[in-house]
Design brief:
Number of strands of chain A: 3
Distance between the termini of chain A: 44 Å
Low-confidence stretches of chain A: none
Strand content of chain A: 5-15%
Largest sheet of chain A: 3 strands, antiparallel
Shape of chain A: globular
Oligomer: homodimer
Largest interface: A-B, 45 and 45 residues
Helix content of chain A: over 70%
Number of helices of chain A: 6
Strand order of the largest sheet of chain A: 1-3-2
Mean pLDDT of chain A: 93
Radius of gyration of chain A: 16 Å
Chain lengths: 114, 114
DNA sequence: TGCGTATATTCGAATATACGAATATACTTG
DNA sequence: CAAGTATATTCGTATATTCGAATATACGCA
């Protein structure tokens, strides 16, 4: 069972492991939204947004309901927004290391990309 | 700044997005450990464990101190353990869907692997 | 200095993820 | 039923991750 729990946590973290999906979850934490609104608010390509939403659906992070033409997305559980809040605090608590970490990640990207 | 925060959160989630790294964090939540103990307790190959530890170091999830021959790992902030606790509760709150999600992920793996 | 133990890094192959372009599906309205 | 809008899926390519095997580095002790 412990193994299952760890796999579950890892799957959830993977679901959230992308800035776009974080942005989606943050938007949904405020209120339910149809997919199109998310595209607009977050400035995403339609296909790209839909793919990220598919990931969140597969991992059960969001639920959907259809209303006519549109599909409304909602956070399945507010604890997920709560976790994002904890991480915001964590970020500021360790501000300088956090920024440094991001810089290092960016450099690593650049090195790979060239 | 919001962008930076989202990138930060995504990086952290990526750091945690593996069952082995979850297991490491859970072990360190109890107490600081040298790398070798982690290998033993978790039954990991030395190289594999070291690679996972490198990920956690890069994302600043853990800190290290050397004592003679050994390198002790510790969780940098208990809030990370707290988050794992929230996810445990989340898992049980949505038990049947959670298990179903894991099954679907397993099937997807099997489909890809064959 | 040289050997032994603890840990980290590099390499290569297999697999997974991300993106945009194109296409498909589902619903609404005329 | 046809045309239009909202959303999802598929495909191809670029990039990232994971693992074990092999190798490298750091420290302690004789």
């Amino acid at each position: 069972m412990d193994d299952m729990l760890r796999r579950f946590k890892a799957e959830l973290f993977r679901a959230l492991a992308h800035p776009t999906r974080i942005a989606i979850v943050e938007a949904l934490a405020v209120s339910e939204q149809p997919a199109g609104s998310l595209n607009l608010i977050l400035g995403l390509e339609q296909a790209n947004a839909s793919q990220h939403l598919a990931v969140l659906r597969a991992k059960q992070v969001v639920s959907t309901r259809r209303s006519g033409n549109q599909i409304y997305y909602a956070l399945r559980d507010p604890v997920l927004a709560e976790i994002l809040g904890l991480l915001r605090a964590y970020f500021y608590t360790h501000l300088s290391e956090s920024i440094e970490m991001l810089d290092v990640m960016k450099e690593a990207d650049a090195a790979t990309g060239s």
